[in-house]
Amino acid sequence: MKVYTRTGDSGETSIIGGRVPKDDLRIEAYGTIDELNSFFGQAVFLAQEMKWEELAGQLVEIQHELFDCGSDLAYARPKEESYKVSAALVERLEKWMDDFEEENPPLERFILPGGSQLASALHICRTVCRRAERLTVSLARTTEINSEVTRYLNRLSDYLFVTARTSNVRSGVPDVEYVRSGKVFR
């Protein structure tokens, strides 16, 4: 099987049910989700290195769901019965997040992204996830999409923030507070 098709040489690409320019907002949105998924691969490796199998397993599961997000955004004419991302996935992220948050010290100020290698990788995932969310919000202004994808990405970025903090706790690395931050969390 050849990987190249030459069908994109003119600056267009296929989506489910049609073709669009490669710089179409839909392609930007699910392309950024693909970029996020690639960063997840690094985070999975680092979680496995830490022997944190629970997180590694969750991250791999999320990688599959990120493909589902991209698939849901790839329809030229969306069909709700074809959607893969649902409210149940958002609720599950919230449950996982609540479980990890129990390990974290109280948060009063903004923190700088970083700390352990895994926390740093998770913070990179978080910022790319926020960009994917912004692009998905923009896409939703111009076309019909599965709104659960936007909710999922929003909650996923929160999950990544919490797991980055938990990674620092488990690694014995304190979060670094932003020095000019007042107490913003209560």
Automatic annotation (TrEMBL):
Q: In which pathway does it act?
A: Cofactor biosynthesis; adenosylcobalamin biosynthesis; adenosylcobalamin from cob(II)yrinate a,c-diamide: step 2/7
**What is catalysed by this protein?**
2 cob(II)alamin + reduced [electron-transfer flavoprotein] + 2 ATP = 2 adenosylcob(III)alamin + 2 triphosphate + oxidized [electron-transfer flavoprotein] + 3 H(+); 2 cob(II)yrinate a,c diamide + reduced [electron-transfer flavoprotein] + 2 ATP = 2 adenosylcob(III)yrinate a,c-diamide + 2 triphosphate + oxidized [electron-transfer flavoprotein] + 3 H(+)
Which Gene Ontology MF annotations are present?
A: ATP binding; corrinoid adenosyltransferase activity
Q: What is its EC number?
A: 2.5.1.17
Where in the numbering of this chain does the Cobalamin adenosyltransferase-like domain appear?
A: 3-166
Q: Mind listing the UniProt keywords for this protein, alphabetically?
A: ATP-binding, Cobalamin biosynthesis, Nucleotide-binding, Transferase
How it assembles, according to the record, is: Homotrimer.
**Name this protein carries in UniProt:** Corrinoid adenosyltransferase
